[in-house]
Amino acid sequence: MRLGIDIGGTKTAAVAIGADGELSDQFRMPTGFGAEEVVATALRTVERMTELAGVEASSFASIGIGIPGAVDSGTGRVAHAVNLGLEGLDLGPRLADRLGVEVTVENDVKAAAVGAHHLLGVADGIRAHSMAYLNLGTGLAAGIVLDGRLLRGGHGVAGEIGHIPVDPAGVVCTCGQRGCLETLASGSAIARMWPTDGPLPAKELFAAAAAGDDRAIAVRERFLTGVAAAVRLLVLTADVDDVVIGGGLAALGDPLLAGARRILSEWATDSAFLASLDLPSRVQVIPLGFPAAAVGAALVGEHQWLKS
Ligand SMILES: [Zn+2]
């Protein structure tokens, strides 16, 4: 049995995965803020899972953590994770000391890519195909699995496509560049382009657009064009078979998928090259509630993912 833990800004999700690849136990608990609380949250999660599964922590085949921010997966160190209040934490080594077993740490979007790859593999029976996980949350980032292996790059930056500028006349991004993809296709982009006091700006935007509000339609199209551009970018750089959209905005569901496919189809009518790539058929949205990052964290500890 493998244990995967996804430490998010407010909630931590945990799953146990059996040798058959099926999820056996899963639960969520609140995440503490700051280094000591994040370590304590991870330890509480492991303890609860050992109770649920009826085994010792040392009998898990692997324990993996997915966490936002800059992660050195080789050392298990989290350089910084702003929304968790972390600035330099040796998370992997500290947990290993306490638990007596090795603990793998990976960036949460990269972990989610491994989780989504696993989900597709279970569905299709294909283990070694190439896919990208496009995370549309507050920001935009992707994780890429090539021929069954997670692509990290030399410094863990592979897949950080949210900071590829696509609009020279766009707004200045948090990264300091202008017109990044993230300034068009992310939760923060929608919050900026469609200000509202409601808790779910993206849902409100799509509802207003569906009701015929011209301004909402314009903002929705700008957002969807950014999503479609991200899909095109991932296919043109890595020729992935599938682009699976996840993250908080994936809860938009069918209107998001249909909108992205519509724009990709429109582009294909003007370009025989794009038409030949059949982009609309490659994009999908992850099933609501599937704990991709926790599943991926469990699997990223497997030997095969660590070998380059
Ligand atoms: Zn940027």
Automatic annotation (TrEMBL):
Q: What organism is recorded for this protein?
A: Agromyces ramosus
Which PANTHER family does the record match to this protein?
Answer: N-ACETYLMANNOSAMINE KINASE, ROK (REPRESSOR, ORF, KINASE) FAMILY
> Which Pfam family, any one of them, does this sequence belong to?
ROK
Record-given protein name: Putative NBD/HSP70 family sugar kinase
Any one Gene Ontology molecular-function term assigned to this protein's record: kinase activity
Q: Which protein family is named in the record?
A: Belongs to the ROK (NagC/XylR) family.
Keyword annotations for this protein, in alphabetical order, are: Kinase, Transferase
